[in-house]
Amino acid sequence: MPSSTIRVPPAAAATAEPEVPAARRVRSLSGLLPFLRPYRGRIALALLFLLLAAATTLVFPLALKQMIDEGLVKPEPGEQLMALREHFLALFGVGAALGLFSAARFYMVTWVGERVTADLRNAVYRHVVQQSPEFFETTQTGEVLSRLTTDTTLVQTVVGSSLSLGLRNVVMGAGALAMLVVTNPWVMTQVLGILVLVVLPSLYFGRRVRRLSRASQDRVADTSAIAAEVLNAIPVVQSYTQEPREAARFDAATESAFDTALRRTRVRALLVAFMITATFAALLWGLYQGTQAVLDGRVTAGHLGQTVVYVIILVGSVAVLSEVYGDLLRAAGATERLMELLAARSPVREPAQPLPLPPVRGGSTVRLRDVTFHYPSRPQHPALADFDLDVRAGETVALVGPSGAGKSTVLQLLLRFYDAQQGTVEIDGVPVNRVALAELRRRIGIVPQDSVIFSADAMENIRYGRPEASDDEVVAAAKAAFAHDFVTALPDGYRTFLGERGVRLSGGQRQRISIARAILKNPPLLLLDEATSALDAESERMVQAALEAAMADRTTIVIAHRLATVQRADRIVVMDGGRIVDTGTHAELVARGGLYARLASMQFGLEPAA
User: What is the pLDDT at residue 434?
Assistant: First the structure.
């Protein structure tokens, strides 16, 4: 499924969705079956306790009938007291059994609901983090977060409560119906007629609840998306004094979610009012018919009490089932959204029969042949066109050129975040699309332009490059990246929490943590995407020295706009418009003139060659 089908435009969410029968929507809950299957034993126990609780409830009217007919008809007060005591003890036994079975059912069902929800949340998250960047070009992070939280909570409500409640009331309703048919078929015929009038409107209202529930969930996702976007850009928002505007935008999204939820609540409120009214009507009608039968001598008082309780159980079960049906429709909408995420398939697939990468010493080789690539969001504009590049083992190659020349795209293809539409991309003689993704990416280290710092301490942030590394190895990598001094100066040294996205560090410090992470990984191919862009002149000199040491015995591809960082590269590849326009050393390219010479002229004040 293309990821673009996941997002529903806010303006059209409530109206653009095609009409689908509610029964078919409820069937979408079948997507939960793979998550329920591993817990068949516990589900069977829950069903057993559910049946026992329902059966105990159905026994109660029989015990009540016996108490009325046998306990109240004794001629002697003493005999009557003893008979009533025995019957009350029997009723207490029924109540105790009902409490025990209900508690066991509640525990087992709640356990299954919590476990299935956790498994579902983990499965969705695990699937999302494996998606290629193309997925995140069309899906907002806040949308995914909403599905992981709000939608899974709705599913938990159904699996851990509503579904069990519905099954219990189905059993009780069917049992009460059977007992009424046996004991009083005339009353049963009239009650069934009332129940038909109850069920039919609930089906109509259920379809509306389902549509409005899906729209409500989409509106909540919109608020999550706005919040995630703004909170990740707080410095920019505040520097441009856009807090009121962003607050107003969030308020508008919240109001939209509120209005949609209010429409859903209004429909459900009408349904509840109708169900309660119909329930009382059925109850009072059955009670009226029973009292007439007692007055005419056709039935005993105990039989009347039994009939009234069974009518209450039956009509109450139908009322509860209508509520459960509404919950099922809401959960069906949530399940659809979660299944859409799980159905999303990354265009970057694991090869069916992956080829191993050969062992290397002294760095990896890189080859791109006749590569043409368009980003999915820009299909009319090639990022690379007929691109050819060979990088020898141990060589340091710099990619330079204006913004949009395709430099970062080369790194994206090497990491196989995307697949080229034409041509081949090889590492160590093996096409990257024939190598297992984990093996391919273990061979590559990258220092991105925007350093990523996780909400952890400095030690764990550097160790992210190689989780099994010892503390000494982490410290050695930090020293190589000239990060050791400022890390040890932090309040708790390497155990200092760096804050969300590294807010407690400067840009240069974040960059050096990122470089230390790549050095710790010690890959044969190192990709540096503007790795020194956030450093001041002094830090840049230190990190350049560290990177030169790190580049030894490995292949390095460097992207830099600041040409001072690439002058000592073995080869400089000049790119423009997705093509290679020149190649050579710094001195050769300056002497030849052309694009590189113009860039050097602007940065160093050099006179380009004629």
Answer: 93
